[in-house]
């Protein structure tokens, strides 16, 4: 899998994570952070990569909790799947907060390597197939001069492909509309073909 | 391939109105709110909401919302009102001059709230200076009918040429004569969806009374009136809040801008010896705020009219309540506790205020508090650092009131005791005076003497009653204390159970995955170095689980094995016997001082285990030190045993100070540290209301010093 795993947990025992040893060779790289801010900085710097985040939910003595970190990641890019990994009991409110924050899935801290690997594979599949990720990859693969040049106008404003990439990641109004338009276009082309 | 280009347009299905109206606005009171907010944005000063024949529902049932705002022209209706998601309010953050109100309905969907109330809308609107009343009829039932019709068609048969889209539906527009000097908008909603009972109107009243803050002193007021002629109480009722002058305590905090430092400074409350003092500090990350807090005691609450309710602290942005603005819950247990005031555990059950004791508001503004953002579902705030900090500020301020009340309570308690003591003394003194009178005057008539004897005997009875009251009071206080302790234990037990399950789940996770790793890779014959490592992890974490299990068992036994033991002897046993081999082997110089010889009522094993843990940690910290030292001194301070435990090891970096008592936090994982020892010490001490803290190191330049406090009196 062309993907990097970022594991953020305040109680890290890096050497003990058998699932990361198991995945060694299957994934590109794995980084572990016990300081959420450093983890977020790393994600920001590497936002162009395929990333999956495994995130602890409760952080002791830390102003940021799993929910805050989840939101921060979502603000950076809606395309990064976050798997919440928690030792706490998840009640309905906590679960609702997780998914309101767009968590990809949630695993208990006593999950097996197989369960974690399955969740990672599912998340990778989303990275591969999600229309927004496909659009982002398409833009990322273009030469930088093409990315920076004006590409389209919308509501009296001109956007370069880099602007659109940012909008798609942040899923702002334009990002959402563009995604919907392309999906709509694809659906229309598909149904037109059916008619023919 | 086609060469000629064509433009593509969005089209909306007829169900759009349902999506916008019913899905975004979930409650009919919320819907009413949205419409009243639009009046506010249109610079209205007065809004009248009339409920006509709303119980039962008939063809004559109406809800009419009438405002004296700026109204709309034909162009406004065509280009703004009829355009979904009109962004003019997003572009213009304030309403037209001179009101310049911060607009509250920003999503341009408020008008679809009508559909939540009823299916037919007739809007009459007029701008100042025009004599034409613009009238528009929107019949949502026609949209509904078209929607059902389209849904019944097969997808294949559906042809958009023959079936109108949302934007193709016609809505009737006409012009009536109007009076030039009048202005505003009237929304007449008929074909109502729901019956509005008196309770529903009361609910609407309560929520509307929060929309504009009651004491907000603004130049252009915003008044709301409810008229529901079917109900006696709502013939023509102005929406006001009557709760504020009934409060027991009230505090108002503001902020100021300092021209010299170019910074905002925030006022805050701090309890100091029975007084709440207003202090000032630099504004926090969420920006400067104004905060008003009203506290209601039992007596104050009795003054409340039926239906009035005290329900916590709300946030007002630019004078209008922010989300969750209308989330009314019939069952108040389900009402949103925005700041987590009711969720707190740390202040003890009996000293804790709840949202039912407090009413208050925070004034924020878009300009000064831009990071306090409504979440997209409009029922909460975006969970960011600023919001977390604001919550913590509010909780702290509530806690300061709690400290004040606690102080007042204890003062009241000692005053009561003092009064009873005084009463006993007064009775004795009167008795003595009577005796003196009897002795000094020989000429007392027999009747007077008899009366005096009677008085003396009654005084004896009174004295007995006063003594007995004093005893009762003491007993009552003791039993209340015992009750509080019981609740405290239950709360500790709850968080303890949560922590233990966290410990077990985490360790089981490691063991499970390491065992899985070994089982998977041994047969394949690869990753052998890691196989050995994971086999070791299985062993180590099983040990951790055993330790946690021992702790659980000892915790279970703690209460039953309390005994009086000699502190000096218990400390010497540890240092001179149990750990002497370690000190010898590692060449550690030990100094243990127990100043007074006295007894402690506690679990002796837990007491000694505590030193065991601290000594183990010190031994690890002293690994690379030449002149290794451990010092332990115990002394009696007031009603507590205070132990200072120090070493001159590598010390604990400042950044880890707040983490070292956390479960699983360890810096000595390489030497078998599991991060359980200090957590266990702390939990045990807290269960008997003791404490452990990290202090500045006693040995210089490096080292660590712990201060342990154990109460000597157990209430």
Describe the structure.
- The complex is a heterodimer of chains A (196) and B (715).
- With 196 residues, chain A is of the alpha/beta class.
- Chain A is built from nine helices and seven strands.
- Chain A has a five-stranded parallel β-sheet, sandwiched between helices. In chain A, strands 6-7 form a two-stranded antiparallel ribbon.
- In chain A, a hairpin with a 2-residue loop joins strand 6 (150-154) and strand 7.
- The longest helix of chain A is centred in the C-terminal third of the chain and has 23 residues, at 173-195.
- The N and C termini of chain A lie far apart (38 Å).
- Chain B is an alpha+beta fold and 715 residues long.
- Chain B contains 15 helices and 23 strands.
- In chain B, strands 5-4-3-6-2-1-7-8 form an eight-stranded mixed β-sheet. A five-stranded mixed β-sheet of chain B has the order 9-13-16-14-15, with no helix packed on it.
- The N and C termini of chain B lie far apart (90 Å).
- Mean pLDDT of chain B is 80; it is low at 325-334.
- The interface between A and B is large, with 36 and 38 residues.
Q: Main traits of this protein?
A:
heterodimer; A: 196 residues; alpha/beta; Rossmann fold; 2 domains; 5-stranded parallel beta sheet; two-stranded antiparallel ribbon; 9 helices; 7 strands; 52% helix; 17% strand; B: 715 residues; alpha+beta; Heat Shock Protein 90; Ribosomal Protein S5, domain 2; 4 domains; 8-stranded mixed beta sheet; 5-stranded mixed beta sheet; 15 helices; 39% helix; 20% strand; flat
